[in-house]
Design brief:
The chain is an alpha/beta fold and about 230 residues long. It has eight helices and seven strands; from the N terminus they run E-H-E-E-E-H-H-H-E-H-E-H-E-H-H. The chain is globular and about 55 Å long. The C terminus is likely disordered.
Amino acid sequence: MILSASQPYFAPFPGFFYKAHRSDIFVILDEVQFPRGTTWISRNRFKGEHGTLWITVPVWKKGLGLQEIEKVRICDEGRWRKKHLLTLKNAYGKAPYFRDHYDFLERVFTKKFDKIIDLNMEIIRYLMDSLQINTKVQLISELDIEGKGDQRLIEVCKKMKAACFLAQVPARKYLNHDLFSQAEIALEFFRYPSPVYPQLWGDFIPNLSAFDLLFNCGPKAHDIIFKGQGLY
């Protein structure tokens, strides 16, 4: 059984789902520290008429010190929800499959989520369903796992009875290979191919939110991500 893990990013890029698709169990690391600076957990890139378009969810950080991701609360001040929905409508209104997903966008930007983890998980599950990914998703906060760093990942693998931990190639130099070997858990690495697909607004921009792929390519999105990878 293959297990992989990731932090709960906001509207993740297709590579996030590529890893999930290659796994039997996809663990969401919601008990790790929320970064102090800019982070993919509360923002991501889309594409507008003038190029890269950032969508950011405001969260409460000032004066709260270090927080675990699962405890970070969304800031309800201002009209950011309506602004983001209008921004996406203006950027993708002419995309072939935007209307297919607009009801979800309207619902998710109307509903008042208390915590960033709840918003992000609703989006992640919707995107997995839209991309036809059936991998089991497990929050690490639900597993009651002790330890830190690599040892914690090993304990997760043991608890979920996974014989292999899957990670992207750049993680190779950060993971303690000896620890995994001693625990008899194999390490497997992959490189996301980052396919090119039709987009609005000029030259192609890679690794945008998976919504960009869905808005532009609809049902073909699954094949675009996984075509030729021998994963069927």
